[in-house]
Amino acid sequence: MRDLIKRALSADPLAIAKLITLVENGGEEKIEVLRELYPFMGKAHYIGITGAPGVGKSTLIDKLISQLRSEGSRVGVIAVDPSSPFTGGAFLGDRLRMQRHATDPGVFIRSMGSRGALGGLAKATADVSKVLDACGFDYVIVETVGAGQNEVDIIKTADTVILVLVPGLGDDVQIIKAGIMEIGDIFVINKSDKDGAQRLAKEVEMWMEFGYKDKNWKPPVVMTIAEDGTGVDKLVAEIKRHVSYLRESGEIKIRRKSRVLEEINLALEEVLQKHVNRVVGEETLNNYVDLILEGKLDLYTVVEEIVTKIIRT
Length: 313
Ligand SMILES: Nc1nc2c(ncn2[C@@H]2O[C@H](COP(=O)(O)OP(=O)(O)OP(=O)(O)O)[C@@H](O)[C@H]2O)c(=O)[nH]1
Ligand SMILES: [Mg+2]
Known about the structure:
By secondary structure, the protein is of the alpha/beta class. The protein has 12 helices and 7 strands. The chain has helices at 2-9, 13-25, 27-37, 57-70, 121-134, 149-155, 171-178, 197-208, 232-249, 251-279, 282-293, 299-312, and strands at residues 45-51, 75-81, 107-113, 139-145, 160-165, 186-189, 221-223. Helix 1 (2-9) packs across helix 2 (13-25), helix 4 packs across helix 9 (232-249) and helix 5 (121-134) runs parallel beside helix 6. It binds guanosine-5'-triphosphate (GTP) and magnesium ion. Guanosine-5'-triphosphate is lined by residues 51, 53-59, 94, 145, 190-191, 193-194, 225-227.
């Protein structure tokens, strides 16, 4: 293990991949890996990119990688697809487009599906992000499909959240449905080679008048054509402006604090669940459910009984 960690810290891609697999598999080894890596974490900038299926997130990330690499930064990418069981080395469909960077040792790309996610995809993504952070990647980018609660949970703890929209998807619907306007730090109107891009950008700006999560940062709206790279330099500039803003305003500390808090809660949940499984089996749990349904016991009494069992044993 020591040797593996040493190699991963010196940017050996095979060793990094192995560590990530250990982390995904969970259990004692995961905890050991994360513990050993802990002193090396905290340097990366975490970026979350989300948007409806097919809006061009992967294409955009592919171009972001090129730009950030040309500046000498190392980039780690986690492509999360909650609807896919595939994980690890199995690359999800069109994410192949990012694969041209796979032979570059300064780039690490990992796909994650629901299978590599004991204890929740959000937690698994956070853990893998931390491995990449410790292994010296300057940017850790997480791509998630869609805009449901799952996705929000996965990216809400990123330092910079980028929401990607495209014209012609039923613009306002897209935004309202997303219900995630408030978590975006930067808005990208991709496929701006298509009709309606300007109008969508105006609409987004109008929506912004309803407020954003951080009153000192008005999320910029960036027009891109990911396909040919148009506007990607602007996007990188806005990301950097956001990084500076977060640092100078002290907001980064607030975000990281809430990230650690969230992580403590998730880790507690994981440990608690283990204890619950230890003291009550499925059958007992089902009995409790029946008793509650029959009105013989109330929920809180059941919880108290379980907690008492955990404490006593
Ligand atoms: N016209 C146009 N097409 C684009 C642009 N960017 C991406 N596309 C195309 O849109 C399609 C989807 O691109 P992806 O990058 O795979 O989109 P995605 O959001 O990562 O898709 P999922 O991961 O499946 O949700 C591909 O066929 C791209 O070539 C653009 O700026 N303009
Ligand atoms: Mg994609």
